[in-house]
């Protein structure tokens, strides 16, 4: 499958993150130190919206139970907790991103 356009660079003038939809899937797009990254927006634990979490450097923290994901790779960097019990959270999907001019694309078939 080819790359699909999902955003524009002008979307990141104020914010470092943006939530976009592609064929029913929500994707979290971030801009970190001038580069763009895309991962699934839905937390792999219980579906929290990662877009609603805090972005701290390369890490987005799920607002529901605190699991943290590296937005560059989709890898879990910290397991969240429910009360005092750690939850088991798998990595999330990341997407290849490319920029052409002012257009941002992802390739949904390649990670
Ligand atoms: S829903 Fe994200 S850590 Fe539980």
UniProtKB/TrEMBL annotation:
Xref: PANTHER family: FERREDOXIN-RELATED, RIESKE DOMAIN-CONTAINING PROTEIN
Cofactor: [2Fe-2S] cluster
Metal-binding found in the keyword field: yes
Ranges where the Rieske domain occurs: 4-106
UniProt protein name: Rieske 2Fe-2S domain-containing protein
Pfam families: Rieske (PF00355)
Source organism per UniProt: Acetobacterium paludosum
InterPro entries assigned to the protein according to its UniProt record, in alphabetical order: Rieske_2Fe-2S (IPR017941), Rieske_2Fe-2S_sf (IPR036922)
Upper taxonomic lineage: Bacteria, Bacillati, Bacillota, Clostridia, Eubacteriales
GO molecular function annotations of the record: 2 iron, 2 sulfur cluster binding; metal ion binding; monooxygenase activity; oxidoreductase activity, acting on paired donors, with incorporation or reduction of molecular oxygen
Family that this chain belongs to: Belongs to the bacterial ring-hydroxylating dioxygenase ferredoxin component family.
Key words of the record: 2Fe-2S, Iron, Iron-sulfur, Metal-binding
Domain of life: Bacteria
Keyword Lipid metabolism among UniProt keywords: no
């Amino acid at each position: 499958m080819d790359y699909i356009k999902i955003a524009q660079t002008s979307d990141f003038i104020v914010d470092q993150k943006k939530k976009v939809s592609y064929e029913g899937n929500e994707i979290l797009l971030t801009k970190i130190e001038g580069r763009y990254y895309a991962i699934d927006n839905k937390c792999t634990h219980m579906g929290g919206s990662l877009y609603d979490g805090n972005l701290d450097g390369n890490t987005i923290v799920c607002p529901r139970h605190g699991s943290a994901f590296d937005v560059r790779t989709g890898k879990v960097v910290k397991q969240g907790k429910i009360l005092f019990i750690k939850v088991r959270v798998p990595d999330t999907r990341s997407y290849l991103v490319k920029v052409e001019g002012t257009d941002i694309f992802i390739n949904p078939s390649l990670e």
